[in-house]
């Protein structure tokens, strides 16, 4: 299972590239607004917004370029800046309020940094606090799973995404403070000079370039560190990599599950966590169900269990590697199965749930992820219907999860339908309005595609 820690070198490149393009847009707005006629400034930001939207659209189709939260943040920044600048012009023309000439793009000089930087700070702070609700993040999570499901790179990308957003917020905050302080304390509109253009335009461009170089060096050093620990897989190696299928079996008897309390977390390389001891791999791309059944029978020494597919994923960045999970249900009592050929013990599911709720770090990453998916799907299906409305009108009803329910259930755990409903249901604020808008947007999008 060491390949779960492998990181595709292209994933690191896309981490930097998405940030670099986002930062580049800031510099292009500054330079473009300075080079074209001042009244064309909103056109520059709209063109860049269209470019970023095209990137997001292509990534939603191919999913090749990783999570695009930073790109989406910059898209919202440019769109908000554009409409804010237009709104200020309209208010100024109507005589409702007189704004300084430097933030009205019908005047010369027009200084976009006075509006763009504080707008970017506000949007980036929103992204930091509501990242998990952003469409690009939810779409990426649906395709590749949550942080733990994405393997070792899931931890890296999640950490780097936070760093990138905080860096962007810090950048906007510092530049906003510098430029607005200069504008209020030093700038004289009747005597503009080279220093003014340096502060309002070139200091932003230079800072953006330096920030891009910093992250370039950061990710190159990260690449070297991962390579030193044999945790990098290059595109050339990917083309020649051998297909592998990893199997995880959860052996269940009644309300008990067979657990190794001293297992190794293969993602975090931590010893002494709870995990299933029934883990193996085969050097093939896909395994027939009959062969899977033979494997679990050999591993447990029990031939009369019931095999049930749980769910599976390709490893992010290594499409030839997949990780499949199965349930293996046993009849009778745990006293009938005391001589398992692997280390472990029968643990009541109530204790597993208690550990999951109180000390989840004591559970291996993959097992924690699998338990999260299982409980989310099972409990959501009990509480809501397929339209997202509560089956039981008592809002305090939370439902319970038992292994007997899992065995009796005919839910397709591979399908993300109930995961989506868990994140968007009748308990969501303005659910009916949001549902109507989503359905209307979906119809319009489908009709556009047909044309």
Shape: elongated
Helix content bin: 55-70%
**Can you count the helices?**
14
Strand/helix succession: EHHHHHHHEHEEEEHEEEHHHHH
Q: For the residues shown, what is the average pLDDT?
A: 85
The N- to C-terminal Cα distance equals 47 Å
Low-confidence runs (pLDDT<50, min 5 residues)? Answer: 445-451
Q: Which structural class matches the secondary elements? A: alpha+beta
What amount of the residues lies in strands? Answer: 5-15%
CA radius of gyration is 27 Å
Question: What are its keywords?
Answer:
451 residues, alpha+beta, 7-stranded mixed beta sheet, two-stranded parallel ribbon, 14 helices, 9 strands, disordered C terminus
Descriptive report:
The model is unreliable at 445-451 (pLDDT under 50). The two termini are 47 Å apart. It contains 14 helices and nine strands. Strands 3, 4, 5, 6, 7, 8 and 9 form a seven-stranded mixed β-sheet that branches. Strands 1-2 form a two-stranded parallel ribbon. Helices cover 55% and strands 14% of the residues. Helix 3 (69-93) packs across helix 4 and helix 11 packs across helix 13 (417-423). It has 451 residues and is of the alpha+beta class. The chain has helices spanning 9-35, 41-62, 69-93, 113-129, 135-144, 152-185, 194-228, 235-240, 289-300, 349-358, 365-383, 403-408, 417-423, 431-450, and strands spanning 7-8, 232-233, 244-253, 256-265, 270-275, 279-282, 306-315, 318-330, 345-348.
Outline of the structure:
The protein has 451 residues and is α+β, with helices and mostly antiparallel strands. Helix content is 55%, strand content 14%.
């Amino acid at each position: 299972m060491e390949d779960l820690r492998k990181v595709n070198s292209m994933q690191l490149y896309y981490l930097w590239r998405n940030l670099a393009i986002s930062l580049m847009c800031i510099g292009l707005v500054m330079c473009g607004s300075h080079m074209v006629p001042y009244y064309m400034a909103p056109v520059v930001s709209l063109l860049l917004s269209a470019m970023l939207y095209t990137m997001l659209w292509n990534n939603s189709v191919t999913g090749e370029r990783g999570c695009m939260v930073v790109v989406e943040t910059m898209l919202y920044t440019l769109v908000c800046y554009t409409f804010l600048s237009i709104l200020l012009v309209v208010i100024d023309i109507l005589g409702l309020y007189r704004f300084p000439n430097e933030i009205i793009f019908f005047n010369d000089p027009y200084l976009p940094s006075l509006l763009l930087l504080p707008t970017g700070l506000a949007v980036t702070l929103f992204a930091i606090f509501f990242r998990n609700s952003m469409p690009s993040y939810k779409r990426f999570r649906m395709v590749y799973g949550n942080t733990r499901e994405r393997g070792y790179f899931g931890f890296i990308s999640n950490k780097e995404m936070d760093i990138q957003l905080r860096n962007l917020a810090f950048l906007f905050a510092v530049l906003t403070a510098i430029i607005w302080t200069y504008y209020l304390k030093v700038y004289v509109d009747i005597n503009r000079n080279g220093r003014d253009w340096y502060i309002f335009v070139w200091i932003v461009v230079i800072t953006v370039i330096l920030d891009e170089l910093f992250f370039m060096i950061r990710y190159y050093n990260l690449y070297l560190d991962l390579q030193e620990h044999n945790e990098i897989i290059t595109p050339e190696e990917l083309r020649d990599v051998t297909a592998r299928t990893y199997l995880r079996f959860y052996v269940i008897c009644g309300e008990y599950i067979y657990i190794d309390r001293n297992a190794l977390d293969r993602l975090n390389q931590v010893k002494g966590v709870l995990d299933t001891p029934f883990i193996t791999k085969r050097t093939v791309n896909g395994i027939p169900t009959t062969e899977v059944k033979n494997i679990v029978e050999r591993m447990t020494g029990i031939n009369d269990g019931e095999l049930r597919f749980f769910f599976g994923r390709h490893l992010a960045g290594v499409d030839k590697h997949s990780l499949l999970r199965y349930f293996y249900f046993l009849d009778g009592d745990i006293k009938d199965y005391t001589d398992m050929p692997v280390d472990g013990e029968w643990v009541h599911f109530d204790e597993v749930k208690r550990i999951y709720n109180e000390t989840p770090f004591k559970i291996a990453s993959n097992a924690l992820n699998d338990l999260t998916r299982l409980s989310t799907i099972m409990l959501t299906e009990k509480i809501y219907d397929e339209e997202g409305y509560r089956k039981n009108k008592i809002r305090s009803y939370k439902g319970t999860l038992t292994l007997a329910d899992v065995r009796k259930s005919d839910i397709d755990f591979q399908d993300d339908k109930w995961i989506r409903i868990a994140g968007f249901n009748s308990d969501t604020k303005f659910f009916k309005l949001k549902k109507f808008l989503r359905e209307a947007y979906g119809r319009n999008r489908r009709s556009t595609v047909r044309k």
